[in-house]
Specification:
This protein is α/β, with parallel strands linked by helices. The chain has 2 domains: 185 residues, FAD/NAD(P)-binding domain (3-Layer(bba) Sandwich), CATH 3.50.50; 139 residues, FAD/NAD(P)-binding domain. Helix content is 27%, strand content 28%. A hairpin with a 7-residue loop joins strand 23 and strand 24.
Amino acid sequence: MAKTVLVLGGGIGGVVVARELRKWLGSADRVILIDKDGKHLFAPSLLWVMEGRRKPEAVVKNLERLRRKGIEVIVGAVTKIDAENRRVETEAGGFDFDALVIALGAETAPEMMPGFAETAVSPYTLEGAIATRDAVAGFDGGKIVVMVASLPFKCPAVPYEAALLIDHGLCKRGVRGGVEMEFITPEPQPMPVAGRELGRMVEVLLAGRQITYRPKLTPESVDVEGKAVVLAGGERVGFDLLVGIPPHRAPEVVRESGLANEAGWIPVHHNTMATVVPGVYAIGDVTAIVTPSGMPLPKAGVFAEGQAKTVAAVVAGYLSGKTEPAANFYGHGTCFLEIGGGMAGRAKGSFYAEPKPDVKFDPPGRFWRMQKWLFEKWWMWKWAP
């Protein structure tokens, strides 16, 4: 009997799992991808949009093109996930499923911090990357604050890359001498799950660019009129331009699905991405995974891609009646850290290693910047619709 697999979300994880499922399943089986906008945004290129190196339209693809791969595409927001009764409701109608993969990601929620939406620009959305580009391009002097509003947030390297790239752009324009830069974050160090060595290297990079780094601070609000970040305890950090990483949360439909934990994210088995409901899986930023070190697995596209490939095999095995998983995800990941001037570093390793993640960092150079550029080209050829 033909089976139906629903994939919710057309981001990195959703696109990869849908295409991999089409390879694993029979021609009579249905793979249906549901996305609220019908667009695939390649988020790793948003920083290049912020820099002005990419046109916005170059990093967005139409998901409808997946139909050529035998994948049905439904455009419309998911309004209800009924895992127990194996049905999903959307703006375009309801769909029953034999297996479900939730890849709805983490959404930015600037409204969760008073004053944030009215004052900050952020490279975390396409519109935000454009606004950040324009704000920095017109900035000639004063103070720039780069702020991480709260934890967790996706793409852990992005705030640090943004600060370093903004610094580089100001230097190219010859105005950096009149600009003070400060970085504030609740994190104890840059990218803490990757280890102290990598964090220290990033701190050295920031110090070398005269970017004041202030970890372990909790922003509570933004004073719109006074142009200041208000920290827990009452300290005020003034700014002329605020580049903020907004609060993140799981989509409301996920929080109300009965699958989420108290924080709103979906706990899954760390190897198979299975939820508590048989045949229902979650991948990418919407998940909550605790690594053997006790720290959460970062929310990053590289993990969504790896999890997607695993889940496609696991779903195929589940539908064929296998009791053992057909594949496992082992927490391996690679991340580039761009610093400007055609230079980037690379972090690579196992985040599931015990007793702590085994992550190595290759110092910045032109080689790794070229590898990042090639990765974008490869992705757009291999996976983008």
